[in-house]
Amino acid sequence: MSVITITDRAADHIKHLIASAEKPVAGLRLGTGSKGCSGLSYKLDYVETPSESDEKVEHNGVTVFVDRTSLLFLLGTQMDYEENTFTTGFTFTNPNEKGRCGCGESFHI
Q1: Which of 22, 58, 68, 91 is 20–30 Å from 15 (CA)?
Q2: Distance (Å, whole) CA 20 – CA 3
Q3: Pairing state of beta strands 62-66 and 55-59?
């Protein structure tokens, strides 16, 4: 069982991001950071050289490295990509979330 799941839409967008990156990258790193009124936020960064402590998740030809320090917050999360009239970007369905702030920028466990 993977730490997270990546939808086909998310994988397709990750392929696009990697192809257009300024430097060669091995994938993206998913982690959490302190932000917003609820305390935690999702963050994505390019990974040139993976850390040995990262959890590696592969799907449909892409690799997402999950930051070890964020692992417990992200277990079971589904990473998707959405484009609609009002928002465009990655979305996360996280079974560990207990709530989100009103603007949706941050969450708490």
Answers
A1: 68
A2: 27
A3: antiparallel
